[in-house]
Specification:
Length: about 350
């Protein structure tokens, strides 16, 4: 009991610190832009004070963007932690398994065929369907006890296929301007998002998060092995299906309004694991908060980086995420091979 109390206190402090960090970054997001506003001005405008211009900037332009960054970062971090818990593999994440790319293909197909615009409910439905299929196919191809290499290869194949299908749809688009708009949208951005986009994505993100959080105890049992989990009453097949559904709902809803934003789901759990520990149940909420913090920080950064054109937040997260992913692969190789090349 003596050793448990400090660990529990450390986890509580880390979670509270993350809540504080996310709050500060949200305020920073509301104050950052061509018109810079102080935190006090932001708070004043949020609650009806300040000038009419300040209220419009904060409440109508920047608040939807901050809400989306917070919610989408959270579901990506939560999905990454859930997939890592399900597969018991530290390299599992939605972006590596083709879920965002497949969701983007579903959304792009709907736009290109003229069946939906960027504010239609058909967009997240198409994204969710394709994300669900991608993760389901991945688990079907790789199998229940897939190793690291097999998972990466299967995920790469699905991602490549989804990317090629998306490129084909754009190539066959009868309107070159629509193809260009889709290309920019695919880079991943929170720019020019409104409360319409919030209402479009948030129900699916919340539903996905609820499903994943409801399986916390099952993740803990699964960390002991599938046979042990089944002896403890966990239906592993049902758990796998629920995780696929939760990831598909959350990631599909997110991609439908922002395009592809990668690597948040991979990085967030790894940043928290040294502090929180390896218990997948306890890692879910801190990973979600870390995902929110990462995406809020990235969205603030793209507005602060001097550039003649707007840098897409998906580009920045990929630039940061790819070296991190390579580092994780090298670490796994050393762990498996004892450091021998």
């Amino acid at each position: 009991m003596v050793s448990i109390a400090p660990a529990a206190r450390r986890r509580a402090i880390a979670t509270l610190a993350l809540v504080g960090l996310v709050t500060l970054l949200a305020l920073g997001s509301l104050g950052t832009g061509p018109v810079k506003l102080s935190p006090l001005t932001v708070l004043d405008a949020l609650f009806g004070g300040g000038s009419d211009v300040q209220q419009i900037i904060v409440r109508e332009i920047r608040l939807p963007r901050a809400i989306l960054a917070l919610a989408i970062g959270a579901i990506l971090g939560l999905s990454g932690a859930a997939l890592q818990g399900l597969l018991r593999n530290p390299l599992a994440s939605p972006s590596l398994f083709g879920a965002p790319q497949s969701a983007a293909f579903g959304a792009v197909l709907m736009i290109s065929l003229g069946w939906a615009d960027v504010r239609s409910w058909a967009l997240p439905v198409a994204g969710i369907t394709m994300a669900f299929l991608s993760v389901f196919v991945l688990l079907g191809i790789a199998g229940r006890n897939a190793g690291l290499l097999l998972l990466i290869l299967a995920g790469l194949a699905i991602s490549s296929l989804a990317g090629a299908a998306t490129a084909l749809v754009m190539n066959l688009s009868p309107n070159p301007f629509a193809a260009l708009e889709i290309a920019f949208w695919l880079l991943g951005s929170l720019e020019d998002r409104s409360f319409r986009h919030v209402t479009l994505a948030l129900p699916f993100i919340v539903a996905g998060a609820i499903i994943l959080m409801s399986q916390r105890s099952a993740f803990r049992a699964l960390s002991l092995g599938e046979e042990t989990a089944q002896s403890l009453g966990v239906n592993v097949s049902r758990l796998r299906l629920l995780v696929i559904l939760g990831v598909a709902l959350g990631v599909g809803g997110a991609v439908a309004v922002t395009g592809t934003i990668g690597f948040i789901g991979l990085i967030a759990p790894h940043l928290m694991r040294p502090i929180i520990g390896h218990d997948p149940a306890r890692l879910l909420i801190p990973s979600a908060l870390t995902g929110s913090a990462l995406l809020l920080a990235a969205d603030i950064a793209v507005r602060l980086i001097p550039s003649t054109t707007d840098i897409k937040v998906g580009v920045l997260t990929s630039i940061i995420g790819v070296p991190f992913f390579l580092y994780l692969i090298m670490r796994e190789r050393r762990a498996l091979g004892g450091g021998v090349a």
